[in-house]
Amino acid sequence: MRIYPAIDIRGGSCVRLLRGDYGSETVYAASPAEVAKKWEADGADFIHVVDLDGARLGGENLAAVRDICSAVSVPVQQGGGIRTLAQVEAALERGVSRVIIGTAAVEEPSMVAEAVSRHGVKIAVGIDARDGFAATDGWTKTSRVPAVELALEMKALGVKTVIFTDIATDGTLNGPNVRAMADMVEKTGLSVIASGGVGREDDLLALSKTGVEGVIVGRALYAGQLDLAEIVNKYR
After folding, report:
1. Which of 102, 161, 164, 207 has the fewest beta carbons closer than 10 A?
2. Nearest to 105 by CA among 188, 30, 163, 185
3. Which domain holds residue 144?
4. Tens digits of per-residue pLDDT, 174-190?
5. CA-based angle 114:151:166, to the nearest 5?
6. Is 203 a catalytic residue?
7. From residue 119, how far is each of 85, 104, 124 by CA, in Å?
């Protein structure tokens, strides 16, 4: 099971939100690139980046993402505001190894199909669930599309990897929605990267039993509750 340290960018800085609430922000570092270098030094072999401004407004922290990709040698996956093929292409040109499409998966699946046709496994879909339904537009809206149903639709388009976030647990450190993650793995057969709620090593152990390919860890690293070097080696 791979550990993906998270870097969320807002206003050019590295921040964390609570349950996706833009009003509950904690700024951890002025330079996301420096954080990325630390995660690489601690043993990360893949880094997860989200442009929080982009998720609501579309592509706002492009320079910061480019700096991260230039600062590290490990691959970077990035989501947040990727809603057109032009934005997919631009992200890949900035050095992003895997582009995560979120809102467009709900609103414009044909774009996802074309992106997968062009770039294959470099395309992943981010499914962020609130009460089991896919949220969009930086989690500010909730669709009536069940998360598992959306994942199956994306699988039919050729998508291989989904980043599945449980919004209710995100940033809380109170434990992930293990049942929802196991359900997503079992019902879709996709490569699932779990996100939301990880606060201690027991959470990682529980997720490792669900069959997820990887786990995104954010606030627990910044708060010092988990040590990246230790957990990367343990779950590699």
Report:
1. 161
2. 163
3. 2-235
4. 999 999 999 999 999 99
5. 125
6. no
7. 11, 16, 10
